[in-house]
Amino acid sequence: MTRIKRGYIARKRRTKIRLFASSFRGSHSRLTRTITQQKIRALVSADRDRDKQKIHFRRLWITRINAVIREGIVFYSYSKLIHDLYKKQLLLNRKILAQIAISNRNCLYMISNEIRKKVDWKEYAGII
User: What does the entry list under GO cellular component (predicted)?
Assistant: First the structure.
């Protein structure tokens, strides 16, 4: 039986995988079997960490807003601010509030003061 030389298709597939793993270290970028394992692992990690990134950024925004609000002259907590924002139906999400807190604290103080003026303070005192 004559010897059949393999075509270029398998080599093309392997080089495509190697391009993905070119930044890996050691045998993870050279051996085909370990490249495929590392590729699967990298894609799984990327998928998982995209969800984690959203959680981490939300936590960061909340921390920034809370820190700036508590620095103010009159004590006002993050949870009360968000509660009052929902009550007044203001469309400011946490990302925008955190950007305002970093760039212009006085603006955030003005927003919180305007909200506090309009909200009935008897609720916080527990009278109602």
Answer: chloroplast; ribonucleoprotein complex; ribosome
